[in-house]
């Protein structure tokens, strides 16, 4: 059931949540009068807070205490009452540019560094998934002659991952010993052919390559190459679950919301031992038709999370992409009492940075 609030109710809900985020203390009407210029009396604020409580947006943890936001209250705050912080976004962008200014880096180092910066600036647990293998696009292929009549097929994806496959050098029809220099020239020509036809395509599209377009003298490479490429595709599509870079766990678990040791243990177990469940939740890959309508940043608050260990937490995530293709996801996990303006902004900024870096 949708809750409709008038301007006064919205303003008081906004002030209550802002104060609670800052202090972790239940909020009373007197506190709001003293801290915020709401233009109404303490009695009026108290009456509005009663209405908000009956609407399920606030609740009292104890009968004698003030009120704190519910998951539903935070949902209205995120959807209607807050604006992502531009200053936090700029701070994140600058930190990534300065902290990751390293030309000789691989993908894992890039994502690990971004996760550390995101955890530091957000004050939350940062979660960055490695690119999903089934979204990998071919960036470069190379055939390299090895010893003992073998060829090394090297494939580099757009996410900078490298895969290789050793294959036997096809025997010539005449049965002569291969000429090393001539073979190097042939391998370069075939490499050029593969790059021209496969660059920018997914590994799963290898089967559609028109091998008949290879010149007749290079046809002998076709069957071996097709077999090796298909084996690489099968290996990458059936590899282990997506790896997640996790940073900032120790600091966020010191928050008052995580005072109970049992709760901490279940969260740690999820982060360390059940990453396959977590990665499927963070990397919410939309259908092609949904991409245009999908929110840039997804915010799951408390009970909205399907995984039991994090139903007292908020998970904020956004996909990083190559063009319109989602590769992986950037996320933060923290208490529902978090700085949503800053958190949403830094997650979006980190996803934008990685999208640009991987393009």
TrEMBL record:
Negative regulator of class I heat shock genes (grpE-dnaK-dnaJ and groELS operons). Prevents heat-shock induction of these operons. The gene is hrcA. It comes from the Bacteria. PANTHER family: HEAT-INDUCIBLE TRANSCRIPTION REPRESSOR HRCA. Residues 110-343 form the Heat-inducible transcription repressor HrcA C-terminal domain. NCBIfam families: hrcA. Keywords: Repressor, Stress response, Transcription, Transcription regulation. One of its GO terms (biological process) is negative regulation of DNA-templated transcription. Belongs to the HrcA family. One of its GO terms (molecular function) is DNA binding. This is Heat-inducible transcription repressor HrcA. It holds the Pfam family HrcA.
